[in-house]
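call fold(seq) -> tokens
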Amino acid sequence: MVILGIESSCDDTSAAIIKDGFLLSNVTASQAVHEAYGGVVPELASRAHQQNIVPVVDQALKKAGVERGELSAVAFTRGPGLMGSLLVGVSFAKGLAASLGIPMIEVNHLQGHVLAHFVREVGDNHAVPPFPFLCLLVSGGNSQIILVRAYNDMEIIGKTIDDAAGEAIDKCSKVMGMGYPGGPIIDRLARQGNPQAFRFARPQIADYDYSFSGLKTSFLYNLREWVADDPDFIEKNKADLAASLEYTIVDILMKKLRKAAKDLGIRHVAVAGGVSANTGLREAFHDHASRYGWTVYIPKFGYTTDNAAMIAMAGCFKYVDRDFCSMDKPAYSRAEI
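ret:
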């Protein structure tokens, strides 16, 4: 079983090869062009995908030592994501599958993030979460608590009703004039600051749902007042601001996750998505493992952001079940697990 995975949901063009359950290559081309605009520009993203898709897939095959004729199936991200970006990956997958006479496997991008925990490399014996488990999926576009009963049986039991955690971090970083993407910048600064230096609004949302728009607004309004009194306030306090912002967001995320784990009686808890690379969130997971007896699963940094390894892994599960898709399946921009 040799699966080619293709990921093109946003601004990363990625291709990966998994053979008999083991990852042989995972190649990603990122797009630096968006930094100047403070966010991803869809039209520029789709054009960059068109330039990158062929060399990225070619490099993935060469790195894995696999010929096109050896491929068993092509797994691709069908959605959700930016429509223009998705169309590049979906169209390429269809063309390649048709030319080789092999089946296509559609993958939900969000399910791919959850299944990244099952990616194994040769000689890698890391533990994988047993079913059922809880997964906190946090990224620039999603903040969800997912009950994972099986690879194809996932239920969102909590989600953000407005902004995602990663989006709040990016926008607060932009307000501070720190640039885009804000995640790595805030993470680096937070390691040097006092997380208790400032307090920001915390949402009071029922059940397991999240809200980050109020926090973002609180951050903006407080910053305006402080800068009005001292124009150099941000420069003098940027580390403490970053640390306090990170602490607040992580605390909000973990509070709801603790409630879900307690209510459902589940102690196997995973984290996935781009924000799972955040140092503060990873430390919180280790802390909860010792305090609450959780067994936690944290992905390698290479599997936190959008990547094709997770798409190929999802494809492996579906290939075993012969869960293929037809050529007439279009990309979709919005969907849930």
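The domain at 2-125+303-320 is CATH 3.30.420.40 (Nucleotidyltransferase; domain 5).
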